[in-house]
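From: lab user (bench 3)
To: helpdesk
Subject: output format question, protein + zinc ion

Hello, I'm new to running complex predictions and I'm not sure whether the block I got back is the full result or only part of it. Here's what I submitted:
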Amino acid sequence: MIKKVDHIGIAVKDLNQALKLYEGLLGLKVTETEVVEEQKVRVAFLPTGDSEVELLESTDPDGPIARYIEKNGEGIQHIAFRVDNLDEKLAELKAKGVRLIDEKPRRGAGGARIAFLHPKSTFGTLVELCERK
Ligand code: ZN
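Helpdesk reply: Thanks, we reran it on our side. This is the complete output you should expect:
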């Protein structure tokens, strides 16, 4: 049901500073940057092999990424798994008692449909399920 690790989300305070490392020193290339208004975040995707790194910078001091950094510091914020049928997967997980943050998919960066599982049900890691066309 899980196809692969789609991406790893890394919360950063300053996207341009982070890109100096990821692009300038590690040699990854940004394929896409986007502001996702509803999540108050600016994201950059950097493909690496079959998966991507997603750098997330808050656009609002009260946004979820700003709050995450305040509490935990910068670093890995979530891991995203690619699924084929997100609605079906969410219904199945809910039926099996997994705590969901999103009972209905929402729009993610790059036109993906995404939903988060609660870290209380995933051994402390914020898990995103991600469906792409
Ligand atoms: Zn993500």
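A quick orientation on your result: Residues 47 and 66 are 24 Å apart (CA to CA). Let us know if anything else is unclear.
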